[in-house]
Every structure is written in C-alpha cells, then in structure tokens.
Amino acid sequence: LKKMQVDEKIDGIEKELQELAKKQDDLKNAVADKRVGREEAVEKQKEINDQFDQIKDDLKKLDELNDALIRPMDLPSLEELQDEIDSDLNDSKENLSKGKDSKAGQSQKGAAEKMEKMAQQLDQAQMDSNQQQQGEDLEMLRAILESLITLSVEQEGVMHKFQKVMQDDPNYRF
Fold first, then answer.
1. Which burial class, exposed, middle or buried, applies to 6 when counting CB atoms under 10 A from its CB (0-12, 13-18, 19+)?
2. Which tens digit of pLDDT belongs to each residue from 1-15?
3. What's the CA gap between 92 and 49, in Å, rounded?
4. How much is the CA Rg of the chain, to the nearest whole Å?
C-alpha cells in the first residue's frame, strides 16, 4: 500500500513538473513576444516560483514516504537540480522586474528544461525500481512454486505409504 502511495506521489510530481515547465516556457514566449506587461510577467513568474516551492515540499514528503517502505526505492538525489531551478527562477523574476527580458528568457528556458529533466529522472527511477521489484517478485514466485512441488511430491509419498498400512499395524495407531 505504501509502495502504491510512493508511485502515485512520483506520478503526481512528474505531472506537476511537466505542467510547470510548460507554464514557464509559455511565459518566456509571451514575454519575448511582448504579449504580457512587466507587472503581469513578474506576477506570473512569482506564481511559478511558488508552485515550484510546493513541488519541493512534495519531494520532501516523497522522500519520507519512500524511507518508510520496507524496501525503499532507489530515488536519485534531486537537491542540486532543485537548487539550480530555484536559482534560475529567482534570476528570471529579478530580470523581469528590471526589464531585462532576454536574460529573463534564458533563465526561464533553463528552468523549464531542468524541470523536464527532473521529471524524467523521477520517471526513470520509478521504472527501474518497478523492474527490480518485478524481478524479485518473479524469483519469490519461483521459490514458492518449487516448494509447492516438493511438498506435493512428499505428500504423494506419504499417501502411498498410508495405503499400504494395515489396520492392526502399530504405525497406524496414535
């Protein structure tokens, strides 16, 4: 059940990261095309920064959930990437407020790409962990089947011995 919660949390974070990367890219394009004013662009950038802070909190919760598992998933350390994204987002906000649209665009593009990269790393880690889990489950199933076959053969032997025992045989008595 906890494994399922971790998987759902990873899927949710991946989706949020991809959506946020798209918002960041859309804002970059809107600023480059002069479709939004400086105030509105700064406000939208602030919203994106806040949403990324929420994602960082979700990642901390994900780590806690993962650590609570009996066999935790091998999730990559994303702190360095988080710091880079934070830096890019803050640079974008500062450059937008100063009117440096081209520098803001570069920072926005970098942040969006890094968000996509983070989502891909989470997805890859999840897939690797699930493959490893399936392999372990297959080995466990194989061991169970071998034990069942051995038990069945032994039970057949006991049944054959039991059929040969006479009612007055001492082996038949308790």
1. buried
2. 788 888 898 899 899
3. 10
4. 29
**CA distance linking residue 84 with residue 3, whole number of Å:** 29
d(CA 162, CA 171): 9
| Residue 9 in tokens | 């949390």
Distance CA 92, CA 111 (A): 9
Residue 100 is given by DSSP the state -
What is the per-residue pLDDT for 113?
92
* pLDDT 10s digits, 112-127: 999 999 999 999 988 9
On the CB side of 114, how many CA atoms lie within 13 Å of its CA? 19
pTM of the model: 0.72
Q: Of 110, 117, 102, whose CA–CA distance to 34 is shortest?
A: 102
Q: What is the mean pLDDT of residues 57-78?
A: 86
Q: Which of 132, 18, 5, 115 is nearest to 74 (CA)?
A: 132
Instruction: Write down the H helix ranges in the chain.
Output: 2-32, 38-67, 79-98, 101-164
Task: Match 């939208």 to its residue by tokens.
Answer: 44
